[in-house]
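To: structure desk
From: M.T.
Subject: fold request, one chain
Message: Could you run this one when you get a chance? Sequence is below, nothing fancy, just the single chain.
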Amino acid sequence: MTEEGTSSSVSQTIAADVISASGDREAGGDPSDQHEHGHNVAAMAVRPTPADEGIRDKVNIRMPADGAYLSVLRTATAGLAARLDFTLDEIEDMRIAVDEACAMLLSQAIPGSDLECDFTLGVDAMTVSVSVSCLAPRVPAGDTFAWTVLTALAGSVDAQVGPGDVLTIVLRKSRDSSRSV
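Reply: Done. Structure tokens follow.
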């Protein structure tokens, strides 16, 4: 079958890279090579350096800023929270919080841009930073119902506009330390 005869779903490319502790790329190749074939979803896991004391893993996922891809982030969030032995309720809270944070960002995203999600896993906590490029970024108001829900689900929520008109929402959730593992 020729490329012209393939469906659009086949042309959607998923690329994954894992960076080992020594910095060597273990699989997947250069994710930037995938752009010419269609959409790109790239994931990288990076081992923390000694300066990152208390951090177990860092994972970065970059994908098109389109709601159709949010299931990838929900699944990644659940899997990573499970690695930290979060309860089922804590896992579901983080899945919903990441989904809501992305919905806030996607409403301001530049069409055709990428959404980037950085997961930092500590011993008993997870930090998720979701970022997107915007034309005129506006930090979500902290007194809205949506922000209150995010705070209740994640524990700690922050938003900021960074260089290059990048809007970022940061969610921090700690595992309930009162229970034994």
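Reply (cont.): The chain has four helices and seven strands. Let me know if you need anything else for the meeting.
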